[in-house]
Design brief:
The chain contains twelve helices and ten strands. With 298 residues, the protein is an alpha/beta fold. The chain has an eight-stranded parallel barrel, surrounded by four helices. A two-stranded antiparallel sheet has the order 9-10. α4 links the parallel β3 and β4. α2 packs parallel to α4, α9 packs parallel to α10 and α11 packs across α12.
Length: 298
């Protein structure tokens, strides 16, 4: 088992591509997405998975170390035999990371850590260097475990999903008449955000299913960014530009954050400082530093 240091990532866009399509994987890899996720789970029919594993392995293996770092794989759930087959097939190619679907809680990530440690050792990969993004809300029980991941091995971030959760709840739909998520899914999104922040890892928003609705995507991305999310899953290359733009801090945001940092630096003993008609305290300073750190300014 590896140590339990979190894998820090600040990827804005995480673009899915089906693992049984060389063309779509090539397109995702060539896109501006921060992470391309080759999917061996929902996007691939059961009878096509053996061939898809070979295609995913070969596509990842074609790249150099820098290219492979942004090529991740969504494996099948750990409570299926398919997950072990996925891992055995793809780990020799050294993927940049994994997306773990339908996680039932921290125990699944710890079990995956055991598998990965053995496979890293067998393939000459430095132990503990394959990070994992966890889909933390796809079953009813998993939602209650979003806060349990702090200190878990290999954890890079938490994301959530509404479609599989709908199936788990027996729901006919997950949205109300106005198009917004119903309460169980708002709860899942909130607990995912809280769990990720508690664990000190990245919170990643789920997909916007209508890939033609770029205005709706932008509005939603801005809304979840305001809440605290720092990236978003994508299902089509056209969504990547919008996601990257929204989750990239503007120069105005960075200048405002730097101003807050400078004000507190000039008043080292102050707990609160009045500025532009507002009262700033230490949480404002922490948020400003976090924004600058994510942008590489400090």
């Amino acid at each position: 088992m590896t140590d339990h240091q979190p894998h820090v990532t600040s990827a804005r866009s995480w673009l899915f591509a089906p693992g049984d399509s060389e063309k779509k994987m090539d397109k995702a890899a060539a896109s501006e997405a921060d992470i391309a996720i080759f999917d061996l789970e929902d996007a691939v029919a059961p009878e096509a998975k053996p061939e898809a594993r070979t295609l995913v392995h070969d596509r990842i293996a074609r790249g150099d170390d820098d290219a492979r770092r942004r090529l991740w794989v969504r494996i099948n759930p750990l409570d299926t035999d398919m997950a072990a087959q996925d891992l055995a097939a793809i780990m020799p190619a050294r993927p940049g990371g994994l997306l773990l679907p339908k996680s039932r809680g921290r125990g699944d990530l710890e079990r995956l850590d055991d598998f990965l440690t053995a496979l890293e050792a067998a393939n000459g990969i430095a132990l503990g260097t394959t990070p994992v993004l966890v889909l933390a809300t796809e079953t009813a029980g998993a939602v209650f475990h979003c806060g349990d991941y702090s200190g878990a091995p290999r954890l890079a971030g938490l994301t959530w999903g509404a479609e599989d959760l709908s199936d788990a709840l027996g729901a006919s739909d997950n949205r109300g008449p106005d198009g917004t998520y119903d309460h169980p899914y708002i709860l899942a999104r909130s607990l995912c955000l809280l769990g990720a922040r508690h664990a000190g890892v990245q919170p990643v928003e789920t997909i916007h299913a209508d890939f033609r609705d770029l205005d709706g995507l932008e509005a939603r991305a801005r809304d979840v960014k305001r809440q605290g999310y720092t990236g978003m899953l994508a299902i089509h290359p056209a969504q990547v530009e919008v996601i990257n733009r929204v989750f990239t801090p503007s120069e105005e945001e960075l200048a405002a954050a730097q101003e807050i940092v400078d004000i507190f630096a000039a008043n080292p003993g102050a707990g609160t400082i009045g500025h532009n008609g507002k009262m700033l305290d230490r949480p404002h300073l922490d948020r400003a530093k976090g924004l600058l750190r994510a942008a590489g300014r400090i």
